[in-house]
Amino acid sequence: MLDNAIASIENLRVEFETKSGTVVGVEDVSFKVNSGETVCIVGESGSGKSVSSLSLMRLVEFGGGKIAGGTLIFDRKEGEDIDLAATDQELMRTIRGNEIGMIFQEPMTALNPVFTVGRQLTEGLRLHKKLSKAEAEARALELLREVRIPEPERRLVQYPHELSGGMRQRVVIAMAMACEPRLLIADEPTTALDVTIQAEILALMDRLKRETGTAVMFITHDMAVVAQMADRVIVMFRGKKVEEGTVEEIFENPQHNYTKALLAAVPKLGEMKGTDVPSPMKLFGHENQKIEEIPGTNEPILTVSNLTTRFPVQGGLLRRTVAHVHAVEDLSFTVNKGQTLSLVGESGCGKSTAGRSILRLVEPQSGHVEFDCCDVMSLNQKDLHRVRQDMQMIFQDPFASLNPQMVLMDQVAEPMRNYGTHKGSELQDRVAMLFDRVELPRSFMKRFPHELSGGQRQRIAIARALALNPKLIVADEAVSALDVSVQAQVLNLMMELQAELDLSYLFISHDMAVVERVSHHVGVMYLGRIVEIGPRREVFENPQHPYTQALMKAVPIADPRQRKSEKDLNFKPIPSPIHPIGYEPAPSEYREISPGHKILITDSGY
After folding, report:
1. Where does the ABC transporter domain start and stop, copy by copy (predicted)?
2. What's the whole-model pTM score?
3. CA triplet 329, 335, 337: central angle to 5 degrees?
4. pLDDT at position 87, please?
């Protein structure tokens, strides 16, 4: 074998059998991954980048695909080269997890819901490394510390559903690194993570790569992550490789139009300096953008005051409540009509719980939520059902929020059937119009969720949220799992809809660059409280709270010459939000810096 390539893919072709015939997922793709090198594969969802990695693991066959051509040469630890395309599944089982580690994009589907985190972490170690139970548990604890999970001892006995998205993703990374594989395939490993954790995990993977000489095949659509991580970049488009080069070449001298389009779609922090209102992304090839400015109004549509949500922690034989998780603590803010307020913060800071509490999808302990002149907290179920017609939610994970057994047309029509707003041909027309609005072909109406890519599923979720013409949409990480180009289109779509329909958004996100794009006002959350809130321009151009400043610092820059090292990222570990019964935290007090721009002066632990 030439040079020190750990994996060498040559002329790979993968086909999928569907009802409408054979679909080619990847066609004639060739590239190498060398020892100690990070190769980033970039492209939109549906470009075939995940298919390439699943072929290398021979997992593509479990998803209805087959390797129809090409070779996948892998250099094993013992120094022998094998063609993975022709290896039997028995040997593949030994290689998977032990010699090739994989980090999947959806941590909830990669973890088994019925086993504890500790059991899942130790399983591979005991199987591949033949460790005893005690040794495996000690190593599992060490791995959780390496991926910086707070209170790792407690996490080992918890189940995946008890962890936040960011924590689950860190568990998956710990599992992939457990056996110190020769090749680590990371499929969008940081898509659903906050900037701070993303920065840490990228630095962590980089450090592990340097220490162990592991080769990394990093699949992503985030060009800022590519700039931070890659040695070489492969750009994929519609199942083919369209460009390959070193990270500097790709960023400083892209040749293919598609690469240029990808780079143009990256929201960059600081691009909005000096402007007060959100403005759409400039999309490559979309010169005729419809919206100019979205001023909105100063008339409140949603007023939240002193909202507090806590979850009981049960323990002991009788499962008594022994403590509370203080998920949201004394939260107050206002969303204006036709404007966007963004809540931004790390996973586990309570921003999703805040969004759900406002819609009463979880019941808050105390506080007031006034929406369009009615008190949401005092409504009975019947009235709440009526009010929810005007407040809709877009969830973070579109796959979990869509019904796998219903065709998409029925899913988008369902809210209208529930509320009886449209019937018969009128309903059909409205669904078709919604598909047009979210720029999905009408032929997709007969498809099922699993037949769509992540970005397309998220558009269905948006279409469904729009079905009832709501006044307020709570978008919980609505674009966090999308590719940059799709993300830019979806954000533009959301802004267009805001301008046309006078929509208000409560936009929950951890992506600072996206928040800067879409917001009129920004609230930064930490440990259940807002630590800084104000007009977007004030918060971004003059951040006052140390936590806001740390968040800004962690945002990756889409420039390979401005990489961040681990020593730049000095985040404090997040303290536990669990407090014993009877603990009463101090109320949130703020100091006003300029009109509307306030920072928390109560001790938030940061």
Report:
1. 9-263, 302-552
2. 0.77
3. 165
4. 87
